[in-house]
Amino acid sequence: MGAKGDVFVISAPSGSGKTTICRRLLQEIDRLELSISYTTRRLKEGEQEGLDYFFVDQPEFDKMMNYKEFLESASVYGNSYGTARKTVQSIIDRGNDALLEIDVQGGCNIKQAMPEAVLVAIFPPSWQTLRTRLFGRGRDSKEEMDARLAAARKEMLVLLGYDYLVVNDDLDLAVSNVSRIIHAHRHRCERAGSVIRSILFQPGEE
Ligand code: 5GP
Fold it and tell me: Could you say which of 3, 47, 146, 161 is the most buried, measured as most Cβ atoms within 10 Å of its Cβ?
């Protein structure tokens, strides 16, 4: 049996380009799989069941909670989100790496449950850029924006406790930096155990 895969968590305040970075990582890195979360929020246009999320109602989500099926769960903007234990387990058991695109509360809970998980925070290059990216979407009122900016500041303070921090100024560079973190972790001696054993301890060798 090969070594188990690793768990990589990516979190960021909204407007930091986290989703774009994750999409690129999944396209560019082999054996990296997205952990598809469960959520009670409504499916948005362009999203697909089982591809973006597993969309469930609150009673079903609560049932999963009661059966302790989530590795972590959180309430984000009034909706419930959760990472299923079996989703992550099946990815890493196959020797692939799991990519969890989740919020900062979720990241901290994953670290408690799995201290070996690698947490990567994505930051915007400046406060002004974050404001522009958020306002640029033109979806929210001024009050909503102020609330989102205050939430972003709070999240960023907690994100400082993550293992790595990548600034998304230039998208290609940010993707490449996160990719290097993932590849570096794949080369830990601990993970190379089966290769090392096959080289050093060939049966029957003098
Ligand atoms: P959205 O509804 O925009 O897709 O996601 C809202 C927030 O919830 C994002 O920050 C996203 O990363 C986070 N999120 C998505 N899935 C999970 C999950 O399983 N657990 C947690 N804690 N956060 C999640």
Answer: 3
Top mutation candidate among 20, 22, 37, 88 for ligand 1, by most atoms within 8 Å of CB: 37
Instruction: Measure CA 18 to chain center.
Output: 9
The answer to whether the CB of 48 falls within 8 A of the CB of 56 is no
State the pLDDT confidence band at 59, using cuts at 50, 70 and 90: very high
| Domain containing residue 30 | 7-36+96-200
In a domain, 126, yes or no: yes
**pLDDT value of position 137:** 59
* pLDDT grade for 190, boundaries at 50, 70 and 90: confident
Centre of ligand 1 to C-alpha 61, Å, is 14
Cα angle for residues 171, 135, 24 (degrees, 5° grid): 25
pLDDT above 90: percentage of residues in the chain: 76
CA 59 / ligand 1 centre spacing (Å): 19
Q: What is the pTM of this model?
A: 0.92
* 43 C-alpha to ligand 1 centroid (Å): 13
What pLDDT does residue 2 have? 66
CB contact at 8 A, 169 and 125: yes
pLDDT of 206 > 60? The answer is no
Minimum CA distance residue for ligand 1 atom 6: 76
Residue 147 domain-assigned? Answer: yes
**Could you tell me if the CB of 101 is within 6 A of ligand 1?**
yes
| Residue to mutate, 64, 103, 137, ligand 1, most ligand atoms under 8 Å from C-beta | 103
Quick check: is 187 in a domain? yes
Number of domains the chain contains = 1
How far the first Cα of the chain sits from its last, in Å, is 25
CATH code where residue 156 lies = 3.40.50.300
